[in-house]
Amino acid sequence: MDWNSIAKQACIGMGAEFLEDAKKLMEFVRVWSGGEDGHILKDLEGYERTLKVKRKLYPHDLQSISKVDFVDGGRYIPAMVKALLNAPTADSIGHANLFSNSDYSSLQPVAKARPFAKQANDLMCSVISFLNAYGRFEASVQAKLVSDLEVRCVMHVHQKRCDTRASYKSLQHIAKARHDEAKAMDDKLPTWAKLKPIGDEPRTAMPAGWLREIRKGGLVADSEMSSRGFVVGAKILKKDNERATMYTITGLCGSPKSIAVQKDVKDEEQEEQEEPFEVDRHEVITSWVVHVVAQEVCFESGEYPDPSLYSDMLIDVWKGHIKSTLIDAFKKGSESKVVVHKEPSVKVVVGKSFKEEALHIVGLTNNITITSKHNTSMLCLGECFEHPTQ
User: Fold this and answer.
1) Could you give the CA distance from residue 288 to residue 245 in angstroms, rounded to a whole number?
2) Residue 342: exposed, middle, or buried by beta-carbon count in 10 A (0-12, 13-18, 19+)?
3) Could you report the per-residue pLDDT of 97-153, keeping only the tens digit for each?
């Protein structure tokens, strides 16, 4: 897919200056559209239409979001966009100013906010499954319940507070508030299994602060595994362990939840081959790496271009010859017999007598240009060399 062409098409009617912004927006669409059906973009569009006051989004914010490596955050990343659209504050021209670069970097692997964001993502996936199974709401009402929970979770994880918005002690308090709201609309709604008893526990300490296909429910598609090198036959091992056992991926299990791997057995170990077993795809992405054997590549003389024939090097050599010749001629010239006038006008006059044809004036300059085309505005000193073109 030619994303540059797509970015240029997006500029139609917007002006050429929109191209840079279009490329930034393209990065988000490429990673977080939701696959071929674009369900993430459609969900964001639907949410935007429900807002009475909606903020404008800066392209660089969406670009920064697209760079967050959070494949197991299939609900959390789009929820950040919803939080931007519904941000409590904005700058003077109406653009959301909710997040900073530190908010985005805090979501990268091993960053401080990552575990809390993962818990929030699990909660978002769980509420969707719960309402799909037991809710009797209209689609628009259920979508609002889910989106409200998502935005509040994002605000809590990044510790964004505003006097006009409710704040919560923990993700469990957010979950209970949304469940109570849904229960008030449907008294037959059962208790959400994700809810845990909550009391006056202390506030959770949070840190201040090609097309990727993300399936509904946060599952990892085959295309995402393939883009990271986790394909059938690939050798994988645990991260940060030089002596880790090597495994081979034997199958994708036909499910976006796990893959099948089998331990490699060396001939000298003479062990019985173990049966393949399944590993969660999220665990594979976060804790395993693909083992790549570097291929030796070498070239013999004659198999690579002769560096002594590079045009830039030849040009430097010829410039050196020309300057050396000019300096020799200058030193042998009649410079001692002339006077250079600067004011009121620039001129050179002879100050001493000389014999006929004995006066030799040499122009010395450091500005020498060797080009492939003759420039009529310059003094041509002749042809230096011929260089074959390819």
Assistant:
1) 11
2) exposed
3) 999 989 999 999 888 889 999 999 999 999 999 999 998 899 999 999 999 999 999
Higher-pLDDT residue of 86 and 5 is: 86
Q: If you compute the radius of gyration of the chain from its CA atoms, what whole number of angstroms results? A: 35
Tokens representing residue 196 in the block: 């845990």
Q: Which residue has the tokens 């979770």?
A: 153
Domain final residue, candidates 185, 210, 237: 185
What pLDDT score was predicted for residue 199? Answer: 59
Q: What is the pTM of this model?
A: 0.56
Q: What is the SS3 assignment for 248?
A: strand
- Going by C-alpha positions, the residue among 238, 220, 219, 222 that lies closest to residue 290 is 238
Most confident residue range from 68-72, 140-144, 347-351: 140-144
* 242 Cβ contact list (under 8 Å, min separation 6): none
Q: Number of structural domains, the chain? A: 3
Statement to judge: residues 339 and 284 lie in one domain? no
What token pair was written down for 95? 């653009």
Q: pLDDT band for 42, please (50, 70, 90 cuts).
A: very high
Cβ 236 vs Cβ 283: under 8 Å: no
Contact residues for 18 (Cβ-Cβ < 8 A; gap 6+): 10, 11
* 46 compared with 209, residue with greater pLDDT: 46
Report the percent of the chain where pLDDT is more than 70: 87
DSSP run (H or E) holding 147: helix 139-157
150 shares a domain with 36: yes
- Say if strands 277-280 and 235-238 run parallel, antiparallel, or are unpaired: unpaired
Angle at 152 between CA 85 and CA 169, to 5 degrees: 150
**What is the residue range of 262's domain?**
220-290
- Angle (nearest 5°) at CA 371 between 365 and 374: 95
Kindly state whether residue 196 falls inside one of the protein's structural domains. Answer: no
